[in-house]
Request: fold
Amino acid sequence: MRLVLLGAPGSGKGTQAARLKDHYAIPHISTGDLLRAAVKAETALGLKAKAVMERGELVSDDIVLGMLEERLSESDTASGFILDGYPRNLAQAGALGEVLARIGQPLDVAVQLDVPTDLLVERIAGRAAQEGRKDDTPEAVRTRLGVYNEQTAPVVDFYREQGKVTCVDGVGEMDEVFDRIVTAVAEATD
Reply:
């Protein structure tokens, strides 16, 4: 099973990815985790990324995609993988498709977790309060959601055009949402 989890910040991608990882017995791959691990391990791409980050710049899509390709070529992904929150824009979606084709691991399904904006703001504000974070104000969250709608939401249409997207209601108890995802993935991959 090769799947991408899509959804706005606060939609529950990380929570559900961790559960799906166990359910399908495949790795959950986060590009943020890959980046931190490569920098710590001082791999060739990690050193490039570290230099960029030390200059205060964003790591390029090419570097992140290179790390992702290395990770997806490891033996534990032979049965599949879960990408959480990547790709984040149309350029990344296209490049990811090329990598997956090159390594012979085409995407099976993209799951879009749908959650109303007001609930997303409430979830993130609640999480920020629990973690003592002051940067996730309702205004900041609405700005992040605007960026998501502008840059990442078109990725859903990209996968829809390929017949690979399935939308799941992300509102409810964790178990309910998980069951909806598993059912939707089964239906989409039959």
